[in-house]
Design brief:
The protein has one helix and ten strands; from the N terminus they run βββαβββββββ. With 138 residues, the protein is mainly beta.
Length: 138
């Protein structure tokens, strides 16, 4: 499947060919911290199936729990995360699908690092829902 996307400010744009069967949710604590959310979702893409169309990515290298070095690519202007990859021998990318224009059409097929999942996630369906920003007061 062909997708395209961008960072929040629009400086970075890309195209990629993905396999919809490889879309996953990652619950690891690094993904929680780096995304500022309860999990991150994405898919593995061969390096030559990803094409940066505009902008220049900034790279942050982190050490994974395994000890492997991971290069995390993001927009240096707005901070949007685009992908992660092996810092020393990048063959593929873990593309962050929240950046894809087709995100609403992409459904995760499996979850990883479930032992780190936030405990209240199964309760989301029972919570109050708003279609937009409600009028909340501090």
């Amino acid at each position: 499947m062909q997708i395209d996307g961008n960072c929040h400010c629009g400086l970075i744009t890309y195209q990629a060919t993905i396999d919809p069967e490889k879309i996953m949710i990652c619950h690891c604590t690094d993904c929680q911290i780096l995304s500022g959310g309860a999990f991150r979702w994405g898919t593995l893409v061969q390096k030559n199936d990803f094409r940066l169309l505009s902008g220049q990515l900034k790279i942050y290298v982190k050490t994974a729990q395994s000890g492997n070095k991971r290069a995390l690519a993001f927009c240096g202007e707005c901070g949007t995360a685009l992908y992660g990859t092996d810092a020393e021998n990048a063959q593929g990318l873990s593309l962050r699908l929240s950046t894809a224009r087709q995100a609403k059409q992409l459904t995760p097929k499996f979850q990883i690092w479930c032992d780190s999942a936030i405990s209240w996630l199964p309760e989301l369906d029972s919570m109050r829902k708003f279609d937009g920003q409600p009028q909340l007061r501090p």
